[in-house]
């Protein structure tokens, strides 16, 4: 039975389990819509919400249902660092590794988020490797909290560590 037949039979459609952020023309608009939807469900102002980021430790095949709140985002790349899946934190990149695929991240709207710990690196996420943007459009999308691992967050700042939505310029 296809999706239209399910909808006609009275079943409700659910959102996709995983979202590929790079597929959106305006990913910031999509992320704002997710926050707005959460604000409506919780009956709070969107201005009181911010993101909590939970990096998945399981394979995407094990993510069978959408999260209760927020969205699962896949397809990001980490530049200037590697990712330790076991400890869920930043590590030095392997020799000659310019970028590494990032596991799926749960973007979860939360109200009145706690202060960011010093063990967290506020990792910028950009559309493209050219971070300055182009054609009158900024390249920055969102800052994602990642555990900085054995190194202080300043180490990753100096490395120029960032998440990229696309490896094409």
3D structure, described in words:
With 169 residues, this protein is an alpha+beta fold. It has one domain: Roll (Hypothetical upf0131 protein ytfp). The protein contains three helices and eleven strands. The protein has helices at 3-8, 27-42, 153-159, and strands at residues 18-20, 49-55, 71-74, 77-79, 82-84, 89-91, 99-101, 105-111, 120-126, 140-147, 162-164. A five-stranded mixed β-sheet has the order 7-4-11-9-10. The termini are far apart.
What would the CATH topology be? Hypothetical upf0131 protein ytfp
> What is the oligomer described by this structure?
single chain
Query: Which sequence of SSEs, written as H and E, runs from N to C?
Result: HEHEEEEEEEEEHE
Which class in CATH terms? Alpha Beta
Please tell me the total number of domains.
Answer: 1
CATH superfamily: Dynein motor C sequence, barrel region
User: Given the C-alpha coordinates, what overall shape results?
Assistant: globular
Largest sheet: 5 strands, mixed
GO molecular function: dynein intermediate chain binding; dynein light intermediate chain binding
Organism: Alosa alosa (allis shad)
Protein name: Dynein heavy chain C-terminal domain-containing protein
InterPro entries: DHC, Dynein_C, Dynein_C_barrel
Summarize the structure.
With 169 residues, the protein is an alpha+beta fold.
Protein topology:
Elements: H1 3-8, E1 18-20, H2 27-42, E2 49-55, E3 71-74, E4 77-79, E5 82-84, E6 89-91, E7 99-101, E8 105-111, E9 120-126, E10 140-147, H3 153-159, E11 162-164
Parallel strand pairs: 1-3, 9-11
Antiparallel strand pairs: 2-8, 3-8, 4-7, 4-11, 5-6, 9-10
